[in-house]
Design goal:
Blueprint (H helix, E strand, L loop, with lengths): L2 H35 L15 H11 L2 E7 L5 E6 L5 E6 L6 E3 L6 H12 L3 H29 L15 H29 L10 E4 L15 H5 L5 E5 L11 E5 L2 E5 L6 E6 L2 H14 L4 H29 L15 E6 L4 H15 L4 E5 L11 E7 L13 H7 L6 E9 L8 H11 L4 E3 L4 E4 L3 H14 L19 E8 L8 E7 L9 E4 L8 E4 L1 E3 L2 E7 L5 H7 L6 E7 L13 E6 L4 H8 L7 E7 L4 H15 L5 E6 L8 H7 L1 H9 L3 E6 L1 H19 L3 H6 L3 E5 L1
Parallel strand pairs: 10-11, 10-12, 12-13, 13-14, 13-15, 23-24, 23-26, 24-25, 26-27
Antiparallel strand pairs: 1-2, 1-6, 2-3, 3-4, 5-9, 6-7, 7-8, 8-9, 16-17, 16-22, 17-21, 18-19, 18-22, 20-21
Helix pairs in contact: 1-3, 1-4, 1-8, 4-5, 5-7, 5-8, 16-18, 17-18
Bound molecules: flavin mononucleotide.
InterPro entries: Flavodoxin/NO_synth (IPR008254), Flavoprot_Pyr_Nucl_cyt_Rdtase (IPR001709), Flavoprotein-like_sf (IPR029039), FNR_nucleotide-bd (IPR039261), OxRdtase_FAD/NAD-bd (IPR001433), PepSY-ass_TM (IPR005625), Riboflavin_synthase-like_b-brl (IPR017938)
Keywords: Flavoprotein, Membrane, Transmembrane, Transmembrane helix
Protein name: PepSY domain-containing protein
Length: 730
């Protein structure tokens, strides 16, 4: 049978029974705790297993005036129901070997009685019992289908307990705890079903009565001499009814054992009759013991944990199902016939579809006729120029469920035009066949006469947005249709946006079109973090480095004529709010401890450093090197700020280079000039931070390499790997 039939059966049964299962599991946990509690105080005596009735009955007779009965409960505690000399009846726990009273019998609390009744019959008497019986049976079927799903997932029964790869929290724990708790849950379900069945009239057997021949004139015996008492252990007894009047032959002892009830002549000790319990009654008791854990603390604890876990199964099972429904594809704007870009998705749990959705939305926003379908819906696309396949892998290099028919369909429906194809595989290196199915699909398409490879197969481990942007970059390089290459955009969860208030947008400097935006916001962030804004009010985000100055969020932005982000920021009105989010950039936070920090920036890359200097309350020795084009009002403002911070002792020195002024200078010229200082700083464990253009970073790294080689006879790489070089360049 296919995986999906088992999966649907498992799900349908769970949906059908979940409301009742929730009630039964919660009450089950409470009853399990009660079963454990019941065992303390412990009234079981040490030699209980060895005591015979020949020892117990005479002792009790000596100690008590008139005994009605004694009972041995499932905890092996013995209780007595007797009368004292004054004719007052009493019940108590006793020590069966000495007859001593051990404690009062405390009745179950109203709460426990209420819970027990809810658990047994949902307060609906016989109807409720029937519902509970049916739900137990459904739970039995759920555990069987669950067992089969685990076996299938683990590729056979022999791998049942081998490692489960962590795909998502809910899935991982559903499978892992499922493996361990399947047996107790199976037993709970099976015994629960039997307890219900055992109450059905036709299944209840009748006891077998055995009358013994009564021998006349047998000699009288003392109680301790009666053979039956000598041969019967107290531990096998459930109840003994004592004769009303001692020494009267007409008044027998009635001993209730697990398997039978025996009537004994109290004078001569002969067995008068035996009533052998039907098999169903014995099984029922055993079932109740197993179902309630009342005879064993450890088993009661296991049942409690298993019951609790049923709640967890219900929760995680539904999370998995909801995730799975995410593999459904929404309505397309264009038909398969109109489509120029076709995105085909193979996804079991929806994450691959998430990636596909994001590029589909961008294609549509760029005016492309993009069409998305499941791989199982493959057909002929008369106008397609590009087919992009995004598929995950399951089993041992197998297709996800919605791609199972793909191979057959590709062979059956050859395309009529030449179409470029590109395959992106989603998988996990934890599996031996990493992206095995994507590899198969890539090879299959390569063999089709109509297909031309656009890009090499790209495999992506563990849904990595970074690895996905490698494919995006490769796509952007060879096609006209540009896709966003910010990894954060492709990260799993849709980001939660916050409202932040615009406090001020400064005028742009005439020479290099730079301006400052100040936000007033209570969101948590730190200088060096990034602010993600959504200028097109869609999912495409632009990131800006943040400086926290005077407790305000400050961005320094260069206005680009066609820059969506910079134009958006530039046009903001004061006292309005925008939707944005913080992208934590831990790798670029100001060090909490360092012997020395050197900051290198060019252009707007100075933004986070202004904040870091302002926040340098520990007065770590800090040096700022900045490269700008012009020495204008903006650079003057930076210099004034730096001067003030030197007075505060939050900055030690600052150096500016201007590339469009007299004596053209770049920031790397300043580094070269202070080569000895840079070498010593690195040697002494100091940290260099760099923010600005990627090209500047390359140049600076080259200069630092030369400095390290000539001054320290060492490679700059050593300091990089040592975490002494922090970068945030774009
Ligand atoms: C039961 C199971 C089996 C898997 N088998 C493989 C495999 O053989 N090879 C592989 O590369 N990834 C395997 N994976 C990992 C998935 O392909 C990967 O997590 C993928 O990103 C899931 O995408 P989806 O959410 O779109 O289905 C397996 C995952 C699970 C849960």
């Amino acid at each position: 049978m296919t995986l999906s039939i088992w999966r649907y059966a498992h799900l349908a049964l769970a949906i059908l029974s979940s409301a009742f299962l929730i009630i039964l599991s919660i009450t089950g946990v409470i009853l399990a705790v009660d079963a454990i509690n019941e065992k303390s105080p412990a009234y079981k005596v040490d030699n209980f297993e060895n005591l015979t009735l020949a020892q117990v009955i005479p002792t009790l007779r000596e100690n008590y005036f008139e005994i009605l009965e004694i009972k041995v409960d499932h905890n092996d505690f013995v209780t007595i129901d007797a009368m004292d000399e004054n004719g007052n009846s009493f019940q108590a726990y006793i020590n069966p070997s000495t007859g001593k009273k051990l404690g009062e019998i405390v009745p179950k609390s109203d709460f426990i009685n209420w819970i027990t009744s809810l658990h047994r019959s949902l307060f609906l008497k016989e109807t409720g019992r029937a519902i509970v019986g049916v739900v137990s049976f459904l739970l039995l079927l759920i555990s069987i289908s669950g067992l089969i799903l685990v076996i299938k997932r683990q590729q056979g029964i022999k791998n049942f307990f081998t490692k489960v790869n962590k795909d998502s929290f809910s899935q991982y724990f559903h499978v892992v705890t499922g493996r361990w708790l399947l047996i107790p849950i199976f037993i709970i379900a099976l015994t629960g079903t039997f307890i219900f069945l055992a109450r059905l009239e036709p299944l209840i057997g009748k006891p077998t009565e055995v009358e013994h021949q009564i021998k006349e004139n047998l000699p009288a015996k003392e109680l301790k001499e009666i053979e039956f008492f000598q041969n019967t252990k107290l531990s096998k007894v459930e109840k003994i009814e004592f004769p009303f009047i001692p020494d009267d032959e007409a008044e027998p002892f009635i001993v209730h054992l697990r398997k039978k009830t025996v009537t004994i002549n109290q004078v001569n000790g002969s067995i008068i009759s035996e009533s052998i319990h039907p098999y169903s009654a014995i099984v029922e008791k055993f079932n109740i013991d197993l179902h309630t854990g009342r005879t064993n603390v450890i088993w009661a604890a296991i049942l409690g944990i298993a019951s609790l876990n049923i709640l967890f199964f219900i929760w995680s099972g539904f999370v998995i199902t909801i995730k799975r429904t995410r593999t459904k594809i929404g309505k397309n704007k264009y038909t398969a016939n109109q489509a120029e870009i076709v995105l085909l998705v193979g996804s079991e749990n929806g994450s691959t579809l998430g990636f596909a959705n994001k590029i589909h939305a961008q294609f549509l926003a760029n005016g492309q006729k993009s069409y998305m379908a499941q791989m199982n819906q493959y057909e002929v696309y008369p106008n397609a120029k590009n087919i992009i396949i995004l598929t995950s892998t399951y089993g041992l290099g197998d297709a996800p469920t919605n791609a199972k028919k793909f191979e057959e369909l590709v062979i059956k429906n050859p395309q009529k035009n030449n179409i470029s194809f590109s395959v992106i595989g989603f998988g996990s290196i934890a599996y031996s066949e990493f992206c095995g199915y994507a590899i198969k699909v890539d090879q299959l398409l390569a063999k089709q006469a109509w297909a031309t490879r656009l890009l090499e197969l790209k495999t992506i481990n563990d849904k990595s947005p970074e690895e996905f942007t490698n494919w995006v970059n490769a796509w952007n390089e060879i096609t006209e249709i540009q896709l966003a290459s910010t990894p954060a955009l492709y990260a799993g969860k849709a980001p939660r946006l916050k409202n932040i208030k615009v406090e001020k947008v400064t005028k742009t400097s005439t020479e290099d079109a730079t301006f400052k935006v100040i936000f007033d916001s209570k969101i948590k962030y730190q200088s060096g973090d990034l602010l993600a804004i959504y200028p097109a009010h869609d999912h495409r985000e632009r990131l800006y480095s943040i400086g926290k100055v005077d407790s305000k969020m400050q961005l320094i932005v260069k206005l680009h004529e066609f820059g969506l982000g910079s134009q958006f920021l530039h046009n903001l009105s004061e006292n309005t709010t925008i939707k944005a989010r913080i992208v934590k950039n831990k790798a670029f936070h100001f060090p909490k401890k360092a012997s020395k920090v050197i900051m290198i920036a060019n252009g707007t890359g100075i933004a986070p450093f202004l904040g870091m200097i302002d926040e340098n309350k520990n007065k770590i020795e800090t040096y700022l090197y900045t490269g700008l084009r012009f020495n204008n009002h903006i650079s003057k403002e930076y210099q004034n700020f730096a001067q003030k911070q030197i007075q505060n002792k939050q900055l030690n020195e600052f150096h500016f280079a201007f590339s469009r002024e007299e004596n053209r200078q770049y920031v790397m010229d300043l580094v070269k000039r202070d080569d000895d200082f840079f070498a010593q700083t690195l040697k002494n464990g100091g940290i260099i931070m760099i923010c600005g253009a990627l090209a500047m970073q390359h140049d600076i790294e080259k200069v630092l390499e030369e400095i390290c080689q000539s001054h320290l006879n060492q490679s700059f790489n050593d300091f990089k790997t040592n975490g002494q070089f922090l970068t945030d360049c774009y």
